[in-house]
Amino acid sequence: QNDGRLRLSRQGVIFKNSKTGKVDNIQASELAEGVWRRVALGHGLKLLTKNGHVYKYDGFRESEFDKLSDFFKAHYCLELAEKDLCVKGWNWGTVRFGGQLLSFDIGEQPVFEIPLSNVSQCTTGKNEVTLEFHQNDDAEVSLMEVRFYVPPTQEDGVDPVEAFAQNVLSKADVIQATGDAICIFRELQCLTPRGRYDIRIYPTFLHLHGKTFDYKIPYTTVLRLFLLPHKDQRQMFFVISLDPPIKQGQTRYHFLILLFSKDEDISLTLNMNEEEVEKRFEGRLTKNMSGSLYEMVSRVMKALVNRKITVPGNFQGHSGAQCITCSYKASSGLLYPLERGFIYVHKPPVHIRFDEISFVNFARGTTTTRSFDFEIETKQGTQYTFSSIEREEYGKLFDFVNAKKLNIKNRGLKEGMKQSYDEYADSDEDQHDAYLERMKEEGKIREENANDSSDGSGEETDESFNPGEEDDDVAEEFDSNASASSSSGDGDSDRDDKKPAKKAKIVKDRKPRKKHPESKKGKDPNAPKRPMSAYMLWLNASREKIKSDHPGISITDLSKKAGELWKAMSKEKKEEWDRKAEDARRDYEKAMKEYSKSDSHRGERSKKKKKKQEKLVKGKGDKKGTTSKSSSSKSPAKGMSDSFKSKEFVSSDESSSAESKKEDSEDEGAASPPPSSEDSASGSD
Asked: 636 pLDDT band (50/70/90 cuts)?
C-alpha cells in the first residue's frame, strides 16, 4: 500500500515505509514460505511467516527472479515458488483461511487474497457474509466491502455462514470491548478531534467516549507519542500519531492531541491486581499511582503502546521556550524542533522527519520585515511554509538547522537580519531578467550624457530663465487682471495698496511653471539613438531563430526562453556580444559630441530671438504703464460714469499704441515724447 525500501540480508528481511518511517523486520528463522507471482505492478513477492503473518511486496522486475531465488536458497533455505493467479473471471470457488489471510481459490490457483487485518466489520445474513474494510487514504479508489454467498449444506448442527464469520472475526481487526477497562480518565480536553472525551484504557485499544462521537483506537495503529510543553510553561500537549487515522465522515484525524494543565493532579488505581500489573508491565506501572494528570496519561500510554515518548531536544528559542510561534496555512500555532524532526501543533498538526526533508529555506516575510518564513520541502515534493516567525528567532533556528546538517537552500551570512534578507532576496531570481539589464545599461548612458552635456548645453538652459529680472513686466504681460489692477493702483484704500504685492508673489510662483514645460521639450528626431546592450543585440539577432525553433510561442514566453538561453550561454560567446555593445557605445558617444556641437549653434540663435522678444515685452510694459497712469488721472475728473469706461479706455489706448510699436522697437534708447499737462499732474501726484 505504501512505497518504501526493501533490504535482504542474511539475518532477515527489513522494509522501511517511506511515508511513516515504520520498519518491518522479519527474521530469517521466522520465514515459512516464499511465493513469486505476476501482479499489477510487474512482479511481486509474498512471504509467509511461521506465526501466520503475511507480507507482500510489489514492483519487482521479471529479471530479478533468478537473483532472489538463489539468495533465498543460500541464506533462508527456502524455495521461491512460482504461482500464477487465476484470471478466468469466475465468481465461484473455495475460500481458504491461512493465518492472517483469506484466499479465494478456483481449483489450485488463487483468484484474490484479503488480509483479515484490513477487515473492520463482519456481518451475516441469510446465506450471506459481508466484510467491511478500513479505508485506505492514500488510494484514489478504496474497496469498502465484499459479500460472499455461502450455499446451505446438508450437515446438521453446523451453520456454514456462522462458521465463515467466526473464522473472519478470529483474525480480523474488529474491536470489541470485552471486560472492564484498566483505567478511565474523565473529561480530558481534546484539541483534535475537538471536544471533551472520557478515555477508557483497554488492554488492546483506546476508547474515546464523547457526547457526540466514539472512537476506538487499536494500539497497533499508534506510531509515535509526543509530550510537548506549551510556550506559556503552564500547559502540556500530549500528541498521539496514528496510522491509519481515525475517521469521522470525510474527516481524517492523523493525530490525537490532548491539552493538560500542569497544575492538575490525579490519583489513579488500575483495575488489575498487583500480580497482574507486575507480570504485564514489569515495573513500568503500579496498581496505585498519583501525580500530574499529563504524567499519568503519558506513563500509561507508554506502557501499553510500548513506544518511547518524544520530547523537545536542546533547542531553545529567543524567549527561552522550546518552540517557535508561527502560522501554518490560516492558523497560528507552535513549531517544535525535535532531535529527529519538526512537529507543528495544532491546526492542522504536521510531523516532518529529518530523513524525508530535501531542503529548508529562509524566506522574506510577505507582509512585514519584522518576520520571516521558514519553508521545508520534502523529497516527495511536498512544501510546508511556516510564516510570521519573529526575526529574533532567526539566529537560533538557523544554528539548529545547521547543526542538524540539513540542506539550506539559501545559505549565507547571518551576522544580522538585514544581511540575511539581502542574501536570500537575490536567491529567488532563478531567471535572467532582460528588462532589468536593459534599464541598468540605459541608466549608465544617461549618467554619461548628463556629464557631457553639463559643459555645453547646460549654460543655455540656465540663461533661459532669469528670476528677478524684469519681474514686473512679465507680471503685467501674463496676468489677466493686470490692467484692472493698475488702473485702480493709485486708490486711497490699503486694500488696493496690498493687491499688487500679492499678485507679484503669485506670479513669481507661476513663472517657473510657465517656463518649465518649455525646457522639457520632446526628443529631437535628429538626435542619435542610444546604443543597445549586449543582451538586446543578441536578442534581435536570435529572435527569428527562437521563433522557428518554437512555433506559435507568445511574446512573454519568447522573452523567458531568451533569458534562459542567455543565462546558459558560455562566457566566450557573451564576450563577443559585449564587444559589439562596446563598439556601438563608442559610435554613439562620437555621434553625440557632433550633435551637441551643432545644437550649441542653434542655441545661440535662439538666445538672440529670446532677447528680442524680452525687449518687445519690456517696451509694451512701459506703454501700458503710461496709459494706466493717464487713465487713473482722468477717471476722478470725469466722474463716476467715466470710471466704468477705464477698461475700454485702456484697450483703445493699447490699439492706438500699436502704431508706435515699430518705432519703439527700432530705437530703444530714444527719449519718450513729453507728457501732457494731465499726465504730468498725475505723475506729480
From this structure: very low
Give the neighbor-by-neighbor strand order of the sheet with 371-378. 350-353, 341-345, 331-337, 324-328, 383-390, 371-378, 357-364
Q: Let me know if residue 418 belongs to a domain.
A: no
**Which helix (H) or strand (E) covers residue 8, if one does?**
strand 4-8
CA of 401: how far to CAs of 135, 288, 290, 327, 405, in Å? 37, 43, 39, 19, 6
Torsion angle of C-alpha atoms 525, 528, 533, 538, degrees rounded to 10: 80
What average pLDDT does range 545-574 have in this prediction? 86
Q: What is the pTM of this model?
A: 0.45
3-state secondary structure 25-73: EEEHHHEEEEEEEEECCEEEEEEEECCCCEEEEEEECHHHHHHHHHHHH
Residues 282 and 189 both lie in one domain:
yes
Domain with residue 344: its CATH number is 2.30.29.30
| 137: containing domain | 96-170
User: In the prediction, which pLDDT does 619 show?
Assistant: 61
Mean pLDDT of the chain: 75
What CATH number corresponds to the domain at position 124? 2.30.29.220
Is the domain of 117 the same as that of 147? yes
Which set of grid coordinates corresponds to residue 554?
A: 507568445
Long-range CB contacts (within 8 A, 24+) of 39-48: 39/85, 45/80, 47/13, 48/98, 48/99
Q: Which of 357, 385, 404 is the last residue of a domain?
A: 404
Reading across the β-sheet that carries 31-39, which strands appear in turn? 54-60, 42-49, 31-39, 80-82
Strands (DSSP E) found in 213-367: 214-218, 222-229, 235-248, 251-261, 265-269, 288-292, 309-310, 324-328, 331-337, 341-345, 350-353, 357-364
Q: Which residue has the cell 478456483?
A: 106
Angle at 206 between CA 203 and CA 210, to 5 degrees: 140
| In contact, 44 and 57? CB cutoff 8 Å | yes
111 and 54 housed in the same domain: no
In-domain check, residue 340:
yes
In the DSSP assignment, the letter for residue 528 is P
Distance separating alpha carbons of residues 41 and 60, to the nearest angstrom: 8
317 against 485, higher pLDDT = 317
DSSP-derived 3-state class of residue 12: strand
397 SS3 class? helix
Please indicate, yes or no, whether residues 198 and 302 belong to a single structural domain of this protein.
yes
Q: Quote the cell numbers at residue 550.
A: 518554437
- Between 155 and 9, residue with greater pLDDT: 9
Q: Which residue has the cell 510500548?
A: 306
Closest by Cα among 221, 216, 257 to 240: 257
The reply to whether omega before 550 is within 30° of 0 (cis) is: no
In one-letter notation, the amino acid at residue 607 is K
Task: Specify which residues 47 forms β-bridges with.
Answer: 34, 55
pLDDT band at 554 (very low <50, low <70, confident <90, very high): confident
Residues 6+ apart with CB under 8 A from 632: 486, 487, 488, 489, 490, 646, 682
Q: Is residue 489 part of a domain?
A: no
Give yes or no: residues 215 and 287 share one domain: yes
